[in-house]
Design a protein that fits this description.
Layout: H1 2-33, E1 39-48, E2 54-65, E3 69-71, H2 73-83, H3 86-107, E4 113-117, H4 119-123, H5 127-138, E5 145-150, H6 158-170, E6 174-180, H7 188-192, E7 197-200, H8 202-207, H9 212-227, E8 231-234, H10 240-248, E9 253-254, H11 265-276
Parallel strand pairs: 2-4, 4-5, 5-6, 6-7, 7-8, 8-9
Antiparallel strand pairs: 1-2, 1-9, 2-3
Helix pairs in contact: 1-2, 3-5
The protein binds ligand C2E and calcium ion (3 copies).
């Protein structure tokens, strides 16, 4: 059994070693990803359920590196947060998304764009100034821009976060709560934070056609949001049954593979033309 114990130990230490190394490798590549222009944005539409019209688009970051291949954001965003790189990456996302809507405006096919902001970007207190200066620099009207943030952003420094959200909304920038229902915070922040949209997490939408419990939860979230004047977006809609049920429940907007997968800017414009034709 001593032998087994040793094997076990060496197995785990090897795995740990590998994990550390790959994390280290990814971090090393991440440091140079911006200067090497390895990031891009893809876009996924949100539609209004009553009319079917495209009411907005979410920008999602992609990273392609020669050595690592395509690294998913769920993997490198946390790393970017730990290393502080998230601020520069966030600035790039903001600039790129703003430039994209401006191009769409020029082509006469613009929809408001939402960017994701991670909790760490919110914590350093400069997000308001970063967004303001980008709007001033670009001259873009703020109604074309909104932000999506998760409940974790409210955990530290709730007071400052509330002030920042209020300031953003006063300037015309939309604010959405992302992944609603998965965070650890209580409902109290909904009372104190200034918001426009609430996005119901994919995990609830996933099971609404099978689970009565989740269906009731989604129904309650929709009722609560509407009572508070917030619009509700269902994310991760994959089946016509889910879409039908959400429509019945009075959900305002939907997003998901069923409607459209995230696409490059060019492919998104093509999709829009086909969709509205
Ligand atoms: P999120 O903001 O909740 O984005 C939704 C994720 O679900 C996206 O994954 C999207 O591609 C995926 N998705 C959309 N529709 C469906 C569907 O019908 N089914 C399934 N299974 N998935 C669907 P993605 O692009 O891999 O992004 C993962 C997360 O990474 C995002 O979750 C967001 O938290 C973060 N992220 C993405 N882009 C950025 C960014 O520019 N900045 C920051 N800070 N975080 C980002
Ligand atoms: Ca999001
Ligand atoms: Ca989400
Ligand atoms: Ca998410």
């Amino acid at each position: 059994s001593k032998e087994l114990g040793q094997n076990k130990y060496s197995f785990f230490s090897q795995e740990l070693h590998q994990k550390r190394r790959s994390r280290y490798m990814i971090a090393a590549q991440l440091h140079r990803a911006l200067e090497k222009s390895e990031f891009s944005l893809v876009y996924q539409p949100k539609i209004r359920l009553t009319t079917g019209e495209v009411v907005g688009v979410e920008a999602l970051i992609r990273w392609h590196n020669v050595e690592l291949g395509t690294v998913p954001p769920d993997l490198f965003i946390p790393l970017a947060e730990d290393t502080g790189l998230i601020n520069d990456i966030g600035d790039w996302v903001l600039q790129e998304a703003v430039a994209q809507v401006q191009q769409w405006l020029g082509q006469g096919c613009a929809v408001p764009v939402a960017i994701n902001i991670s909790a760490r970007q919110f914590q350093n207190g400069s997000i308001l100034q970063r967004i303001e200066s980008e709007l001033a620099r670009s001259g873009l009207d703020s109604r074309w821009l909104s932000i999506e943030l998760t409940e974790t952003s409210f955990m530290d420094n709730a007071e400052q976060t509330a002030e920042t959200l209020l300031a953003l909304r006063e300037r015309g920038v939309g604010v959405s709560i992302d992944d609603f229902g998965t965070g650890f915070s209580s409902l109290s922040y909904i009372r104190t934070m200034s918001l426009d949209h609430l996005k119901i997490d994919r995990s609830f939408i996933n099971s609404i056609t099978e689970s009565e419990r989740d269906r009731q939860l989604v129904k309650a979230i929709i009722a609560m949001s509407q009572a508070l004047g917030l619009s509700v977006v269902a994310e991760g809609v994959e089946t016509p049954e889910q879409l039908g049920l959400l429509r019945e429940l009075g959900c305002d907007q939907a997003q998901g593979y069923l409607i459209c997968r995230p696409k490059s800017a060019e492919a998104f414009v093509e999709w829009c033309e086909q969709y509205s034709a």
